[in-house]
Known about the structure:
Blueprint: H1 20-29, H2 34-60, H3 81-98, E1 114-117, E2 123-126, E3 132-134, H4 138-150, H5 167-174, E4 178-181, E5 184-194, E6 197-203, E7 209-211, H6 225-231, E8 237-238
Parallel strand pairs: 4-8
Antiparallel strand pairs: 1-2, 2-3, 4-5, 5-6, 6-7
Amino acid sequence: MVKVPQWQGNIKHRGVKLTSKGREYNGILMLPTQDKKVRELEKENKRLQEIIKNIDVSKSETSTPNNQEKPKPIVSTMPTKQAIEIFIDDVTKRFGRSSQPICNVVPKWDKKTTFYINSYNRLSVITPQKEHKQLKDPILIESFWQWLYTHSSRIGDQIDFNKTPTIKELEKRFLNQTIVIGEKRERVCEFVKVEGGVTIKVENQEGKVGFIIDSVTRKERKFLGLECVKRFCLIDWVVDL
Length: 241
């Protein structure tokens, strides 16, 4: 008879003592504990993740052979009218109350043009000349909201053209965007920090990945962080090498 400290009262309960010999015998018969199974599963999961990672890297650094069928591109579906309307209402309420700028650097507009919601809850802009104008052209308004919906990470992001951005800011603004080098279109994959700036890893239309190279030195082209912001537009920005 034994007392169990965790149980209330002084009542003794019948207990069974497991001797060292009994423990050794049971260890032969018993299956591995649940904790051991979990550890084994975690180890196996980690091993599989490493295999998947290596496969992804291997695929990204090679082009598709000519005798193999190329994967069909993923066609993005247009957002529904209701989804756009809900999105516009949310952004309008948020920035109408705060009077803060929504963003700048919008395609087809001067990069320094800033978008905001005016006191009448209408989409407006501040031009590079600091003029405030309410947008009235429905095509321009619709184009802006469509772009912002598909680039929601830019909401509340006003680019300062006098401040050197961090790697995180460059990724937020330019990652997966399209650039044109010569006559070739490339997708921005990664910004790699190096001494004095960054190098840019891109993927071509055949799926081959590599760094942007200086046409003169034939070495990896180093960009200043501020240079990326000043020279590149969000859509189809052109790299002048």
